[in-house]
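RETRY 2/3 - previous attempt timed out on the joint model. Re-submitting the same 461-residue input unchanged.
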Amino acid sequence: MGLTGLLLVGFLIEHLLGNFKLLEDSTGEAFNEYVLWLKSFGPLLQLAELGLAALFLCHIALALRLTLENLAARKQKYVVRGTHGEKTPGSVTMFITGALITGYLVKHLLDFRFDERYFEDPAAFVKLTLSQPQHGLAYLMAAFVVGLHLSHGFRSAFQSLGLSHPALNAYLQKLGIAIAVLFATGFAVFPLYFLFAWNGPAR
Amino acid sequence: MSGDPTSSMGFTLKIWRQSAPDAKGTMETYHVADVSPDMSFLEMLDVLNESLIGEGREPVAFDHDCREGICGACSLVIDGQAHGPETETTVCQLHMRHYSDGATIHIEPFRANAFPVLKDLVIDRSAFDRIIAEGGFISTHTGSAPDANAITVAKDLAERAMDAAACIGCGACVAACPNSAAMLFVGAKVSHLALLPQGQAERNRRGLAMVARMDQEGFGNCTNHFECMAACPKGISVENIARLNRELLRGALAPRRV
Ligand code: HEM
Ligand code: FES
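RETRY 2/3 succeeded.
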C-alpha cells in the first residue's frame, strides 16, 4: 500500500510538471511539443503506461481488501463514537477519496487519452474542455480530492514502510500537508485558469 | 463511602447491558447519587451496583483487578473514548472530579470482533494471549538473576525497550482504532524484545508469527490514524508500529533454512 502510494505520488509530480507546459505560451506549442516528445518513446511509453495502470490496479486492489477487512473487524459499532483527537479529515476519508479518484481517473482517460480529437491539437483540446463548467468544476474538485488523499497518505506511507524517526516525524507530517496543498493548488490552477481567466481559443 | 452532602455528585449513566455473548445488547439508563469527587470511575460503578443489588436488580458486570493502573483489566469506553477523557489514565485511575455534577455519561465495552463481549462491559481478550503465545517470549535459558551489567545494553535502547514494555495489554488501542487493529499492542511486544540482546534469537520470526496470528484473530489493519497512541494509558508510541513494520520486512528478507 505504502510503496504503491508513494510511486503514484512520483507519477503525480511528473504529471503536474507536464501540465505546466500548458501555461508556458498562449499558442500551446510547448505542451504539444511535450506530448510529441512523450510519443516519441513509442513502445517505451506504452510500457510505462501499462506499468502505471498496473500500479493503480495494485493500489486499488490493496485498498479494497484493506478497507473491507477493516469494516468487517467491528460488527457491533459503538453507540457513541468518540475520538482521541488524532484522526484527520484526510485519514477517515481515504477510501472515499480513493474511490472518487478512481471515478475521476476513468473520466480523465475518456476525456483525453481515449478521445481521437485530443491528439489533433492536445493543448487546444485541453483548454476547450477545461473551460466548460461541467468539466472544469469536476477537475477542480478532483484536485481537492487528491490533496485530501495525500494529506494523510504521504505521511502514512512512511510509517507503513517503517520509515520513522522521532526527529523526522514532525517534518514528515508537515511535508505531507505541504505536498497535499501543493498538488491540490497545482492541479486546480488549470481548471481555474481556463474557466475564469482564459480569453478563448487564439485566433 | 457516600461523602458529605456538599461534595456529593450524581450522574445519569447510559450503560451497555448484554446478558450473554450471543444475546442482543442495548444501552440502559441509570441514575447514581452520593458519588464523591474523589472516587474513581470504578468506585462510582460500585456505588451504582450496590444500589442495584439493594433493589434486587442485576448489577452491571465490568472487569477490574488491581485498581491502580498497572494490570490492564479495566476496559471501558466512556463517551466514545477508550479509558475515558484523561490522557495516559486507565479507567480505574480516572476520578469523578473530572466530571461535572449531573452529567450524562455513556459507558460501553471495548468493541472489536476479536474481543467478544461476555457480559455487559466484560470482554474476552484472550486473543492477545494467543498472539503472545506465537512469539512474545524468549526461549533462552535465563538461569538465576545475572550480575548487573553482565550483558551490556546501551542506555537509549534500554529506555526504548522499557517504554515499549510498559504496555499492560489492556486493549485500549484496539478499542480506539477505527479499524480495530492491534498493531500498537503487537508493535510494543515485538519492540521490547527486538531492542534487547535477549530477544535476538527468535527475532526474525517473531513479528511475522505474531502478526499472522493477529490477522487470524480478526483484528483490522493499521491505516495510521494514530488514535491508539492517544488512547493508550501507558503512552506507548506509534514509533513501535513503525519498528514492527521494519521487523516484518527484516523477517521476510531473512535467509532461512529450507
Ligand atoms: C493519484 C493517485 C493516488 C495516490 C498518489 C495515492 C497515494 C496514497 C498513499 C501515499 C497512501 C498511503 C499508503 C500507506 O499508508 O501505506 C494511500 C493509501 C490509500 N489509498 Fe491511495 N492514492 C491514489 C489513488 C487511490 C485510489 C484510486 C484509491 C482507490 C480506492 C485509493 C485508496 C487508498 C486507500 C483505501 C488507502 C489506505 C488508507 C489509509 O492508509 O488510511 N488511492 N494512497
Ligand atoms: S484495574 Fe488494573 S489497570 Fe485498571
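Residues A 1-2, 5-6, 8-9, 12, 59-60, 63, 66-67, 91, 94-95, 98-99, 101-102, 146, 149, 152-154, 156-157, 160; B 223-224 surround protoporphyrin IX containing FE (ligand 1) (CB under 6 Å). Closing ticket.
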